[in-house]
Amino acid sequence: MCRNISAGVSIPGRRHIPSERVIVAAAVGATPAAAARASDSSVGEEAQLRCGICRHDSCWTDHRVLVGHARRRLHSGIWDRMDYSNWDAGNGRVNDSWNRFGCRCHGPLTAAAVVGDQMHLRCRGCHMRSDRLSDISRHEPAAQTPLGRSEREVRSLFENVRAFLKESGARRPLLRIRGDTWSPAPGSSSSSSLLELTSGGTLVHFPVHR
Amino acid sequence: MERSSIFLFTDEFAADGTEDAEVTLSTGSQHGELSARAGNVVLAATDSFYADAILVSQLHGP
């Protein structure tokens, strides 16, 4: 995972979210107890990024808690130090921006994927469509912060995938996610992760549920 | 992406048979089988997951 490819996501009624932080945050598992501690109003802005493959509504709560937990645990203070200067949705009028990108139903996000310089988002209302709803904004984190173990693992995976593709010359990798890779952690209702892969020269971020 | 993941990522990422490599995320037990393949490259080996990659040309053998 490259710090140069962090992204912003605008969500109706919410603050925008730097996707790199979402990726990192979601890669961290949370026990029920830890999740409960994180389940407070401070995680509201992340609430509508639903983790991937599971389509059940209950997943929303889990993911909200999880991301909030990870944010608080690993990125306390970092979030607000991100540079949003080139993200034009960072003015509190995210609904306007969201609408400008073409989503007319204003539904909550269900998924996000970064493709090249653009971010593909899906809301519930548009879920069956393949819509490009938002742009991606590139920016550098204002601060360099040591990564936690899970972050390092995720970053290492991404870098190794990139290296493999570069060295092998492969341009169209097929991603297979074996079922029990994403099984719930012991004692936990769910946990989440996000992956980033390159394909045909494009960069793809996507959340997966485990 | 495999078909099972397309609902999330759109058909733009659907496998179409032209893939030239395969990246598999798996558990330890599955990783053991995958890593035994000739040409397999281990991209990640952590406590919670493994990632193995292989070129399709090597996957199907000479």
Q: Approximately how much beta-strand content do the residues of chain A carry?
A: 15-25%
Which strand order do you get reading across the main beta sheet of chain B? 1-3-2
What is the general shape of chain B? globular
Most extensive contact: A-B, 39 and 32 residues
As for the number of domains of chain B, it is 1
Arithmetic mean pLDDT of chain A: 38
Helix content of chain B: 25-40%
Q: C-alpha Rg of chain A, in Å?
A: 16 Å
Question: How can the largest sheet of chain B be summarized?
Answer: 3 strands, antiparallel
Arrangement of strands in the largest sheet of chain A? 3-4-5
Give the structural class of chain A: alpha+beta
Q: How far is it from the N-terminal to the C-terminal residue of chain B, by CA?
A: 25 Å
Q: What is the helix/strand order of chain A?
A: EEHHHHEEEHEEE
Description:
With 210 residues, chain A is α+β, with helices and mostly antiparallel strands. Chain A is 28% helix and 19% strand. Chain A has one domain (3-209). Chain A has helices at 19-26, 32-38, 58-74, 94-100, 149-168; strands at 8-9, 17-18, 109-115, 118-123, 134-135, 173-177, 192-199, 202-209. Chain A is globular and about 45 Å long. Chain B has 62 residues and is α+β, with helices and mostly antiparallel strands. Chain B has one domain. Chain B is built from three helices and three strands. Chain B has a three-stranded antiparallel sheet with strand order 1-3-2. The longest helix of chain B has 8 residues, at 28-35. The mean pLDDT of chain B is 78. Chain A binds chain B through residues 29, 52-53, 55, 110-111, 113, 115, 120, 122, 130, 153, 156-157, 160-161, 164-165, 168-178, 180-182, 193, 195, 197, 199, 204, 206, 208, and chain B through 1-2, 4-5, 7-13, 15, 18-27, 30, 41, 43-44, 46, 48-49, 51, 53, 55. Strand 6 of chain A pairs parallel with strand 1 of chain B.
